[in-house]
Specification:
By secondary structure, the protein is of the alpha/beta class. It contains 14 helices and 13 strands. It folds into two domains: about 200 residues, Rossmann fold; about 160 residues, Rossmann fold, CATH 3.40.50.2000. The strands form two sheets. A seven-stranded parallel sheet has the order 3-2-1-4-5-6-7, sandwiched between helices. It has a six-stranded parallel sheet with strand order 10-9-8-11-12-13, with helices on both faces.
Length: about 375
């Protein structure tokens, strides 16, 4: 089957959405499909993939990697739509698979009569996320606009894929047809950890790996760290591994007097970052914002790391078995969670086993690719 995936952003990068886009295309290519990906012109690293990448022209020049709206992106998305129309005409794909809303609009503009089925991949919801990109005074209008997008735009597609039960349920509540809405949790690559578990040494090391956008909830983590008791603080170090510019984040760290506790490190190559994750004693996923499936969480579970998450991250994850769940909006709860995870090695060992089990149960690579192939067959025979 010939497949055209469309993504309105740089590729490849280490951000979660791009990782999932690349994983999806790679798995489909290995399955035997002829996979093509259309994306923006720039990338933060050289691609090493088995599928074909098509890029729009590098004009207007836009090499920003962080998420969020931009007036320049409107022009880029129109160019994406034009290139998508060209590729539909040249490649004659059986399916166009649009990742997130901008790509969906571009795919619809390129294919307004719907002759080629469009599958929409809902990586996140805009009602909760859009307000995080602007000033406080615009939060309500941004939330309203995000809700309008969540309600109306999925209807441009012939079928929709949701990355989490919450995203699926919210799209369904808008009146989207249930028989055209599919839950596909992101696939976990179960990796081989080091031969020996992390050696505590003098410190217990906790790691956050991801971008520094506001929706990631790092402010909740910092508030919890700021009230950490002295004994736990002397045992703990927090490593933030990111491709984002850490200047603003580190200024916030200094303003809270946490520079002796929190360090930022460049992400670097994926294997090196994965090694840092393997070597950590605790993984941190402080995001409280609903409407997505953090790839950093999937990676942490697959690597067998004891992981602290927000209480409502995923209904399939069980507290004190798969993860350690706390109310990330409450600094006292964050501090208490860090205290128990830092001091209880037996708990960390149990959660390590539970993490891998949860990754295999909820984020199965085999289930992901099989379910996606079944959806494609349905759409092709519609």
């Amino acid at each position: 089957m010939r497949l055209l995936h469309v993504f309105a952003g740089p590729f490849p990068t280490v951000q979660g959405t791009q990782v999932l886009v690349g994983q999806t295309c790679e798995l489909l290519s290995r399955f035997g499909h002829d996979v093509h990906l259309l994306c923006y012109a720039h990338a933060t690293r050289e691609p090493d993939v088995s599928f074909t990448i098509h890029r729009i022209a590098d004009w207007p020049r836009f090499h920003r990697d962080r998420s969020g709206p931009s007036t320049r992106k409107v022009v880029l998305d129109l160019l994406l739509a034009r290139q998508c129309a060209h590729l539909i005409g040249r490649l004659r794909p059986h399916i166009v698979h649009a990742h997130h809303y901008e790509a969906l609009v571009a795919a619809w503009l390129a294919n307004p009569l719907g002759k080629t089925p469009i599958v929409f991949h809902a990586h996140a919801l805009m009602a909760p996320e859009l307000p995080t990109y602007g000033p406080q005074r615009l939060r309500w209008p941004a939330a309203w606009l995000g809700a309008v997008m969540d309600t109306s735009l999925p209807r441009l597609a012939h079928a929709a894929v949701a990355v989490s039960p919450y995203v699926r349920d919210q799209i369904e509540k808008t009146g989207y047809r249930k028989d055209k809405l599919y839950l596909l949790r992101p696939p976990a690559e179960i990796t081989s950890p080091p031969r020996h578990p992390p050696n505590p040494g003098h410190y217990i090391r906790a790691v956050y790996m991801g971008n520094l956008d506001k929706y990631q909830g790092l402010d909740h983590l910092l508030r919890g760290l700021a009230i950490l008791d002295t004994n736990t603080r002397e045992l703990l170090k927090v490593d933030v591994i990111t491709d984002s510019d850490p200047s603003d984040f580190l200024a916030e760290v200094r303003s809270r007097g946490l520079e002796d506790l929190v360090e930022a490190h460049p992400h670097g190559d994926p294997q090196g970052a994965l090694t840092r994750l393997w070597e950590a004693h605790i993984a941190l996923v402080p995001r409280v914002l609903a409407g997505g499936a953090p790839i950093k969480l999937v990676n942490a579970l697959a690597a067998g790391r004891p992981t602290m998450v927000h209480t409502t991250t995923d209904p399939g994850l069980v507290h004190n078995r798969d993860v350690w769940a706390v109310d990330m909006t409450q600094p006292q709860a964050v501090a208490a969670g860090l205290r128990v995870l830092t001091r209880d090695s037996a708990l960390r060992s149990r959660l390590s086993v539970g993490a891998v089990s949860a990754a295999q149960r909820l984020f199965s690579e085999e289930k992901y690719i099989n379910d996606l192939n079944r959806l494609y067959q349905i759409m092709r025979g519609r």
